[in-house]
Design goal:
alpha/beta, Rossmann fold, four-stranded antiparallel β-sheet, 2 domains
Length: 239
Amino acid sequence: MRARLGLGGGGGVTNHKTLFDQIERWRKRDDGVCIVTFNYDRMIEAGLLGLGINIVELADYVANEHYKLIKLHGSVNWAREVETLIENIETRNVWEIASELIHRAAELKINQSFHVVQGHPPVTTYGTTALFPALAIPVENKRDFECPDHHVEVLQEQIPSVAKLLVIGWRATETPFLRMLAEGLRRRLKLLVVAGGAAQAQEIAERIGVHGIQFDLFMADSGFTEFVVRREGDEFFRA
């Protein structure tokens, strides 16, 4: 299976849905699409609904045969289990629990068990265990990803088959991911950058190239909305 690796950016649910419709139009039967995003919102999940992909549980993010979504910096509806004891958790509301977790953040021990949560704030309980929002601070050299280990493993399995790389609204500054990409790739890529203009796209391509990733560069003339409205990606997707 050949794969395309898309890096999600902003632009709204409608833009994502339209983009996925365009990709699906040209996607060959055996091609896979691996979407990587550093955003916390759920616009990509909403966009995938148009393809009949409904993401409810953590396993759903990587379960579809042709489309997989990897959220390396976490999600607004994800949380991890807190191993540190929170007293009287059964009788307290979520705002009280959230306040204590914030004040005790420096001393909390949080494990790698992820859960999909609902509500606001995204802090609740799993039985008698408190849950802490699974969101990564967006720093350039962050060592760890804020997502289930299995999702990272799936991403690593996908990278060697990547033939095309579509970058949308991503500055290419996350060094750990770029290193993973460089180590896993097995071919020269076709790289299409959507960044609002040629100058910005060129800067992003240079950051990617610094890590030894080889590619043939294509640049969109405009931002994400114009890119999908004008169908600027058709030739790239079709090839």
